[in-house]
Write a structure and sequence with these properties.
This protein folds into 3 domains: 223 residues, no CATH class; 136 residues, no CATH class; 30 residues. By secondary structure, it is mainly alpha-helical. The strands form 2 sheets. It has a 3-stranded mixed sheet with strand order 1-3-2. It has a two-stranded parallel ribbon with strand order 4-5. The longest helix is centred in the C-terminal third of the chain and has 29 residues. β2 and β3 form a beta hairpin.
Length: 433
C-alpha cells in the first residue's frame, strides 16, 4: 500500500461498511466489544434497546452510503451499534476523562496515555470511515435517557454529540497552537442546525470555516459519494485528474512575489483560510503541518470535490493557493521565518513536496473561488515595474547592515569624487587672483 492509499484507508480502526472486516483492522474489534460491555454495565442497559433503535433507522443509514451494502440486516445493525458506541466512548472519554467511565489509567485504548490516539483520530476523520451523526445521537440518547430513537431525543441533549466530536477532533486542526486576536470566534460555529446525516468529517470541515462561509443546506447525504467504489485508485479518489499542462499558474511562488515587492506576514487568527492582501503585504494565518496533514487535506479535498453541495470548495481553494505559493524549499523557509508555516516534517523540502503532490491531480480554478479577487490584486501589484525596481534595490543594497554600509560608503565616495572633480574644474576656469 503506497502513501496515497494510506491517506484514505484507515490503519487502526474501521467505522462503517466500507472497510469493515479488513484483516489489518480486526484487532480493534476486541476493544469495540469491550467498550460495548462497559457501556451496558455502566448504564444498566440492554442490548435490545440499541438493536431496536438502530433497526428503526436502518434504511436511512444505508441510504447514506453509495451503492449496495452487501451485509445482512442483522450484521449491518450490529456493526452500526458496535462502531457507534466505540466512537461515543472515545468522545466522552476525551471530554469527561476515561477514569470516570470506569477504565484503568493504563488502558491500551481508553486512556489519556493511549499512544495510538492520534492515529485513531486520523482514521476517524477519513472520508471512507464515517458514521452518520443521527446514529450516534440515537445511541447516545439510549445511554443517557433510555430513549429509542433520535426523534425522542432529550431537549437538553440535542447536539451534544456534535459538540463532543468537535472537541475530540480539535487536535487535528491545522491552526492548533496559533494565537488569535478574538479566540471567542471558536464558539461562533453552531453545529446544531440540520446535522442529520452529517458525518464527522463534514462537521469538522464546517468548524474550520468561518460561520458565514458554512453552506446553508438541509439534510446533506455526505456519505453518499457519487465517485465511490473506486477503492484502488489512490489519489484519484477525488474524481478529477489533470496534467501539468492543464494547470494554470494563477499566482507566482513566494520567491517571485518577493522579487516583485510583495511581503509576507503572519495574520493573527485561527481561520487558516482567511488570507488578506493590503498595501503590498500578503497576510496569511499560521499553518501547522505534521505527519497527519497530508491525509487530512486529501480527505477534505476529496470530500469537496466529490460532493455536489460543496460549491464553495473553500479548503480546496486554500490548498491550491498555497500550492502555487510554494514551489521550492526556499519558499517554505521564508514562510517559516515569517511565522506562517510551522512544521514537524524532516525538512523544508518535504513540506514543498507535500503541497506540490496534494494538488497533482486536482483541477480547480482559483478564478471561481473566494480567493479570486485577492489573486487578481496580487497579480496586478506584482506586475508593476516600479514595485519590482523598489524590491530589487532593497534586495541588492538594503538586505543586511553590511549592504547598507557599503551602499552609503559608495554614495559618500561618489559625492567626494564629484566634489573633487567640481573644484578641479572650478579652479581651472576661475583661478585665484
Amino acid at each position: 500500500m503506497d502513501g496515497d492509499d494510506k491517506a484514505y484507508v484507515p490503519q487502526i480502526v474501521s467505522l462503517g461498511p466500507y472497510h469493515h472486516g479488513k484483516a489489518h483492522l480486526c484487532q480493534m474489534n476486541w476493544h469495540k466489544w469491550r467498550c460495548l460491555h462497559r457501556i451496558l454495565e455502566r448504564s444498566n442497559g440492554k442490548i435490545d434497546r440499541y438493536l431496536e433503535s438502530v433497526k428503526k433507522v436502518e434504511k436511512r443509514a444505508r441510504a447514506c452510503y453509495e451503492g449496495t451494502i452487501s451485509m445482512s440486516s442483522d450484521d449491518f445493525v450490529k456493526m452500526m451499534i458496535l462502531d457507534g458506541c466505540f466512537v461515543i466512548e472515545l468522545f466522552q472519554g476525551d471530554s469527561r476523562g476515561f477514569a470516570e467511565l470506569g477504565y484503568c489509567p493504563n488502558d491500551p485504548i481508553f486512556s489519556s496515555k493511549c499512544r495510538s490516539m492520534p492515529m485513531i483520530q486520523r482514521d476517524m476523520i477519513m472520508l471512507e470511515n464515517q458514521i452518520p451523526l443521527f446514529i450516534l445521537d440515537a445511541l447516545f440518547s439510549i445511554q443517557h435517557h433510555g430513549l429509542f430513537c433520535l426523534q425522542q431525543c432529550h431537549p437538553h441533549q440535542e447536539g451534544a454529540i456534535a459538540k463532543l466530536a468537535l472537541r475530540f477532533f480539535d487536535p487535528l486542526k491545522p491552526t492548533k497552537g496559533c494565537q488569535t486576536i478574538n479566540s471567542s470566534n471558536r464558539l461562533e460555529f453552531d453545529p446544531l442546525p440540520n446535522q442529520g446525516e452529517l458525518p464527522c468529517l463534514e462537521l469538522f470541515r464546517r468548524s474550520l470555516l468561518h460561520p458565514k462561509q458554512v453552506p446553508d443546506q438541509d439534510k446533506v447525504p455526505c456519505l453518499k459519494l457519487f465517485w465511490r467504489r473506486l477503492l484502488d485508485l489512490g489519489p484519484k479518489r477525488a474524481g478529477i485528474e489533470a496534467s501539468s499542462q492543464e494547470r494554470q499558474q494563477l499566482i507566482h511562488c513566494v520567491t517571485e512575489l518577493r522579487e516583485a515587492g510583495i511581503k509576507f506576514r503572519e495574520r493573527k487568527t485561527d481561520r487558516s483560510w482567511d488570507i488578506q492582501f493590503k498595501d503590498g503585504i500578503l497576510w496569511i494565518p499560521r499553518l501547522h503541518i505534521d505527519d497527519g496533514t497530508r491525509s487530512l487535506f486529501l480527505n477534505l479535498i476529496a470530500f469537496e470535490q466529490s460532493h455536489v453541495n460543496c460549491s464553495d470548495n473553500i479548503i480546496t481553494a486554500y490548498i491550491v493557493f498555497m500550492d502555487h505559493l510554494i514551489d521550492s524549499p526556499e519558499d517554505v523557509r521564508h514562510l517559516h521565518q515569517r511565522g506562517i508555516i510551522e512544521h514537524w516534517l524532516g525538512s523544508d523540502a518535504e513540506v514543498a513536496d507535500l503541497f506540490n503532490r496534494l494538488c497533482k491531480e486536482v483541477v480547480f480554478d482559483l478564478n471561481d473561488s473566494y480567493l479570486s479577487e485577492l489573486t487578481k490584486r496580487v497579480n496586478e501589484y506584482s506586475s508593476r515595474k516600479c514595485n519590482r525596481w523598489r524590491a530589487s534595490l532593497k534586495h541588492n543594497y538594503f538586505s543586511n547592515p553590511w549592504s547598507i554600509i557599503s551602499f552609503i560608503a559608495a554614495l559618500v565616495l561618489l559625492a567626494l569624487t564629484f566634489l573633487q572633480s567640481f573644484y578641479a574644474v572650478y579652479g581651472y576656469y576661475r583661478p585665484r587672483s
